[in-house]
Specification:
Blueprint: H1 9-44, H2 49-72, H3 81-109, H4 115-141, H5 153-165
Helix pairs in contact: 1-2, 1-4, 2-3, 3-4
């Protein structure tokens, strides 16, 4: 029977690298959805810049949840979908506030309202919000499953004993006995006065 080996630092970085690539693929699709809806609304409606951005972000959030749940984090804990979805929406809304806040300050604080300027500051806000979302999604929403327990020597040594105690499994041999150190008699020393 083989015991699981501890994960090395190199393997851990490779795992995070794969996660970042998958997150980036889903996020890249979300960026396309976000910018597509945003620019479509800006060119076809009279919505204010931040309102158009919020609608685009909501559409992208829905797209991203599907991609994250079924592609990026499909191997993660699926314990409570209600909890997962609630946290995803909460952290996505915080990300939306970050992204829209940058756009709001640029548009209404500095008067940068051309299509190019709006897209630049939307992109900047999206970048800042993406760092927050990556951290919060992997830490709180799509939590990693616990590592399998590593078998200890005490557990593997006790396996034949446990198997022998079951009626349907024959004993694999004598149970291991813990070594006992010999005890030398110690005579009490007289108390010092």
């Amino acid at each position: 029977m083989s015991t699981p080996q501890p994960v090395t630092l190199t393997e851990r970085f490779r795992g995070i690298g794969r996660e970042v690539l998958k997150f980036g693929a889903v996020g890249g699709l979300g960026v396309l959805v976000n910018f597509g809806v945003f620019n479509l609304l800006r060119s076809t409606t009279d919505l204010a810049v931040v309102r158009a951005s919020v609608i685009a972000i909501v559409v992208a959030i829905i797209s991203n949840y599907i991609g994250f749940r079924y592609f990026t984090y499909r191997d993660r804990d699926r314990g409570s979908r209600r909890r997962e979805l609630t946290l995803f929406v909460a952290f996505s809304l915080i990300g939306m506030i970050i992204e829209s806040g940058v756009l709001y300050v640029a548009t209404y604080g500095f008067g940068w309202d051309s299509n190019l300027q709006s897209n630049i500051f939307k992109f900047l806000g999206m970048g800042i919000a993406t760092v927050f979302r990556f951290w919060s999604y992997r830490t709180w929403v799509f939590r990693a499953l616990p590592e399998p327990a590593v078998a200890t020597t005490a557990t593997t040594a006790a396996a034949p004993v446990v198997a022998a105690q079951r009626e349907d499994v024959p004993a694999a041999g004598p149970a291991p006995v813990a070594p006992v150190s010999p005890v030398s008699p110690v005579s009490p020393e007289p108390a010092a006065r």
